[in-house]
Amino acid sequence: MKLVSSAFADGAAIPRRFTCDGENLSPPLQWSDAPEGARSLVLLCDDPDAPAGKWHHWAVYDIPPAVTEFAINAVQNARMKQAVNDFRKVGYGGPCPPHGHGPHHYHFRLLALSMEGLPAKANASCADIEREARKHVIAEATLVGWYER
């Protein structure tokens, strides 16, 4: 599988508009080559450089395999199932590293799952979604961008 964004290249800086210093919009994402056996997809975004350990910014789950992209600010689509991020909000929370902490790397990961719907509880956290999804992963793609304040 391949995961890309028209807003930033893999390994490049994430534009300010997709961060807490800008409009805090979720970036446009496109993906391809999901395996034939994929029954659903999960999109995760986290920051492993956070001072207290991995910070979860976004989890979207039960994405139909026929979907191949999210437009800018896709989080506004009320039909999307999204988890509670580490900012304690449902949906996307853009990069917002501590000032002067150096560049943080944001890992957008697309997981193809062998099952159609995750058994997620109401108000599931991003970590809950990732933990459950990991049991059913058949393919994974990663896109990494960085941001510094």
Automatic annotation (TrEMBL):
SUPFAM superfamilies: PEBP-like (SSF49777). Pfam families: PBP (PF01161). Coiled coil: none annotated. InterPro entries: PEBP, PEBP-like_sf, YbhB_YbcL/LppC-like. CDD domains: PEBP_bact_arch. This is YbhB/YbcL family Raf kinase inhibitor-like protein. It comes from Bradyrhizobium forestalis.
